Amino acid sequence: MLVNDAGISNEMTSTFGVTIPPNELPEQKLREICEVNLSAPVAMIQECLPLIRKSPAGRIVNVSSNLGSFGLSTNETSPIRSISTLGYKSSKAALNMATLMFSKELQGTTIKINAANPGLVATDLTGVGNGEKFAGRPGFGTPDERARIIVKLATLPEDGPSGGFFTYDMVVLPW
After folding, report:
1. Which end of the chain is less crowded, N or C, counting CB atoms within 10 A of the terminal residue's CB?
2. What is the number of domains present in the chain?
3. What is the span of the domain harbouring residue 68?
């Protein structure tokens, strides 16, 4: 099994919760985000796929985000719509597409690949020191709680889904 659990978002200003507007995001920051959130996971899949193909039940889980959902980002009632992180949202949407492309390539094999949205996790991805600050707050899960979806997708039975995008409680998300 392969779990691609990389993610960075360096688009915050010095004020918590305020992001750099898309037209002001430095190209270098965008490249860094895309390298970690998209290019590295794809490279890992390409590198590990020969070994995964030898497994009787290979599994690949790409840790994504509901911020990478076009469906939620275009839904006027979704709080996701108002979050304006060009690099993070674009890179996670691209990771979702990569998940779909690999699932198409792997169709007819015993390998399953899915994208997981663990939801809000009290970690430093929300800002250095914020893991402890947000622990226990409504909507924020612990790393252990939110890792359950990753473990579930990494240990799917033979008849489990492939090419899906799931929340931490196995609800299918719109692409």
Report:
1. C
2. 1
3. 2-14+19-167
pLDDT of 67 strictly over 90: yes
pLDDT of residue 123: 57
**pLDDT range class, residue 70, cuts 50, 70, 90:** very high
Three-state secondary structure readout of the chain: CEEECCCCCCCECCCCCCECCHHHCCHHHHHHHHHHHHHHHHHHHHHHHHHHHCCCCCEEEEECCHHHCHHHHCCCCCHHHHCCCHHHHHHHHHHHHHHHHHHHHHCCCCCEEEEEECCCECCHHHCCCHHHHHCCCCCCECHHHHHHHHHHHHCCCCCCCCCCEEECCCCECCC
What does the pLDDT look like over 37-47, one tens digit per residue? 999 999 999 99
* Residue recorded with tokens 């590295």: 40
Q: Which CATH number covers residue 123?
A: 3.40.50.720
